[in-house]
Design brief:
The chain is an alpha/beta fold and 258 residues long. The protein has helices spanning 21-28, 47-54, 67-76, 116-125, 139-142, 152-158, 160-169, 173-182, 203-211, 224-235; strands at residues 37-41, 59-64, 83-87, 100-106, 126-136, 189-200, 244-256.
Length: 258
């Protein structure tokens, strides 16, 4: 079974944490969003929409194809007048042309069959000299071994078929760079970033997060019994009573509107 982003029971799965300061530092190393308008396309529950506002964006509009995600994001960011959300597709956001300075797409493109229409839409949204910022995992990021601070690697050690799924859908440099340039962007800059996902008091807190399949779509490809087996597998490999800092390696591409 794969995740149903439209199901009410999954409404908060991408809305229950905050972006870590190491993400903000990585973004600031490539762009200063102060006073700029940002479109967060594929925003999920709005975690990174809020993060863009926190680091200085004047206005953020989040777009997601799931009404449930849009509702969760709106609820979580109530009282913040410079953040708004709307339902829309990555290839057809419904936003005006030339209306934003930055288009951000995190953990989005690996869900798409190809990136061409998505990147053309990003180009349409951007003002002159605007910037497309894409964050996703490449195959090299996926293949990293599991460890006490890279929990995701254990998913694939325990269930190799999950690695097959990931390797088949994750973007390569060549595919992203080609699609960006064909959509009207300059050759992109690329960087890899270790982003802290969350800190846990210990394994018990981590296991509850895993069993809830919180924010990890790949876990929806496991049955409940398989998920319990995975949690036990991880529990045998990390210290039970020590804090756990979960980190993931990501790739960020930044392409300016040509």
């Amino acid at each position: 079974m794969s995740i149903d982003f439209h199901a009410r029971e999954n409404r908060y799965t991408y809305a229950s944490r905050q972006a870590h300061p190491d993400w903000a530092a990585a973004i600031r190393s490539v762009v200063d969003p102060s006073g700029l308008r940002v479109a967060d396309v594929g925003c999920g529950g709005g975690i990174y929409s809020a993060a863009w506002a926190d680091i200085g964006a004047a206005e953020v509009v989040g777009v997601d194809f799931s009404e449930q995600m849009v509702q969760a994001a709106t609820e979580k960011n109530s009282g913040r007048p410079n953040i708004s959300f709307r339902k829309g597709e990555a290839v057809s956001t419904g936003l005006p042309s030339g209306s934003v300075d930055i288009v951000f797409e995190r953990a989005l493109i690996h869900h798409l069959a190809d990136y061409d229409a998505c990147f053309r839409e990003a180009n349409r949204l951007l003002r002159p000299a605007g910037l497309s910022v894409i964050q996703d995992r490449r195959p090299d990021d996926v293949r990293l071994a599991g460890s006490s601070d890279h929990i995701r690697g254990y998913f694939f050690e325990c269930f190799p078929r999950l690695l097959d799924i990931e390797m088949s859908r994750r973007p390569t440099d060549a595919a992203v760079e080609r699609a960006l340039q064909e959509a009207g962007f300059a050759p992109p800059r690329r960087m890899t970033v270790w982003e802290t996902r969350r800190r846990y008091q210990g394994f018990q807190e981590l296991s509850q997060d895993l069993l809830g399949r919180v924010g990890r779509s790949i876990l929806h490809d496991l049955t409940d019994a398989e998920l319990a087996r995975l949690v036990a597998f991880i529990g045998q490999r990390i210290a039970p009573n020590r804090p756990v800092t979960e980190r993931d390696r990501w790739t960020i591409w930044c392409g300016g509107k040509a």
